[in-house]
Write a structure and sequence with these properties.
single chain; alpha+beta; NE1680-like fold; four-stranded antiparallel sheet; about 30% helix; NE1680-like_sf
Length: about 90
């Protein structure tokens, strides 16, 4: 499966930026990408954060490994936590 990767930076209360990638099927709308990011943030206790192009931008496309494909088929997206996500 070919996926689009969205590079995302969200400020946290501790004056650091949470950095993660949102991976979705290549035909996914930007609105859906933002909704998936908001769902992930809610799971991390960051509620009512509005993602925009300021925080979340298309980065590149790549082939996804099988495990990533399976999660995208189930949930619609896959998150790669990069920095300050916990």
């Amino acid at each position: 499966m070919k996926v689009s990767v969205y590079d995302t930076y969200v400020p946290k209360a501790t004056n650091v930026n949470m950095h993660f990638d949102i991976l979705v099927e290549d035909h996914t709308s930007v609105e859906d990408v933002y909704a998936y990011g908001k769902e992930y943030l809610a799971q991390k206790g960051i509620l009512n954060f509005q993602l925009t192009t300021k925080e979340c931008n298309f980065c590149h496309m790549e082939r996804a490994p099988e495990a990533v494909e399976q999660e995208i088929r189930q949930k619609g997206y896959y998150i790669i936590e990069m920095e300050h996500c916990n």
